[in-house]
Request: fold
Amino acid sequence: MAGLSRRYDREVAQAWRVIKAPARFTVDVVEFNVGKPEYFVQLRVYSSEIEPMNDPMRVKVMEYLALCQKVIYSYGIKCDLAGVEGSPAILPGKGK
Reply:
């Protein structure tokens, strides 16, 4: 994948978002090193949404995230997975 300059864009977002999530939870996409050769994205989930799930559902969530990661990789974009303590931020107009 060396030499690829692909960045996360609408096409990439739509490609992984067609995969049906096993439960309702937040997945934030965070870009790192924008404009640099070490560019990558991170799919971030939050403990407040994952911890209440039972073990089989957590496994399904991880399988879902791994599949989403593979789709993003298929566009030549490095993609990490991360769990974050706490709850996701509520963006204006996106209240629950």
Summary: Residues 55-73 form the longest helix (19 residues).
